[in-house]
Amino acid sequence: MEPMTLSRRILRIARNTALALVAMTVVPVAHQAFMGMPVTVNGDSVTVARGAVVRDALDGLPDVESGHVLSAVTRHVMHGAIGHAPRLAVNGREATLTTVVHVGDRITAASGVDTVEPLVDETRTVDPVPRTIGAGTVPKVVSAGTPSVYVLRVGAVSGEVAATETVSVGVPAVVRMVPAPGVPLVALTFDDGPWPGQTEAVLSILEQRNVPATFFMLGMCVERAPDLARAVAAAGHLVGNHTYWHVNLARVGPDVAAWEIEATNAAILQATGVRPAWFRAPGGSLGGPAHSYITQWGMRSALWNVDPQDWREGMMPQDMAWSVISVAQPNAVIVLHDGGGDQSATIAALPYIIDGLRAYGYEFVTLDELPDVRAGW
Description:
Elements (H helix, E strand, L loop, with lengths): L2 H32 L2 E5 L2 E5 L5 H5 L9 E3 L6 E6 L4 E4 L2 E2 L11 E5 L4 E2 L2 E8 L4 E3 L4 E6 L4 E8 L5 E8 L5 E5 L6 E9 L4 H11 L5 E4 L1 H6 L1 H9 L3 E4 L12 H19 L5 E2 L10 H7 L3 E2 L15 H9 L6 E6 L6 H16 L3 E2 L13
Helix pairs in contact: 3-9, 5-6, 8-9
């Protein structure tokens, strides 16, 4: 055999032997690298790849999850809201889902604790439904109104209301529809109230027939029934002063007359939020210093020119209604009563009066909308 050939064979054998030794070393190492790594999760054996994190070890354990967020009102689970994260530990030490695990690590995992959504305070304003009264075509804003204000305790996530506190009760805006020029007008006025039972009945009839009116109130009655006085003003009617005790102003001294007017203004203002601009003297007796007082306080006197004397006993409703309808003229001021005694006949006659005057073409307004109001006899 040639020497050169023998050398080549020896080199080939040496190279193959080296490759075999390398293969015997690398293959076990590579195999070991791809083998699973044993750990325990809540006492159960789990195999994960080397370099795995806690999240990988928990894969396939659906009972370990974040806590739920519960409604503060109904306690139902709110889907899409995530509560506390799962409670995790590796070998007794607190861990996270991204903590790297090693061979033989002991992982404990429990679902996150459910939590109730927090409550937050929220202020809301609500505009009351405006009131419209009158059958005319020209709107006249009587009161702009105020919104109701509430503080609500609501769930920060659900928005469900847990509690409501009323800060202030709103007053609805009032719009009176005034007849256009050329329409014959009349004004209904009611004296001696507010009178429980009777004033409500009058208000109901006026609301049903969409009629505004003017109420001349006694201070003593306002103080006895402030809610009723407030209901009159809130319905869009005009409120006037009729003295406190229904005294004849021509027969009392200046101090008494001044107190009768001023005390009634104060009572009406406190109950309704409205300071009267109109005054009607009981019996129409605006004598002595009373006229100068009401002028000084920026008020106007309002008497009447149609009086069915509804305070008389035994009057039939139809007769009372005709005594009004038959004498009414444009710009008439009709005096009726919702207080001062039994006014059941007046209440029964009121629908006939309204329907009858409308049949003759009249429309109803408050004293504010009349072009001329009798101030004295």
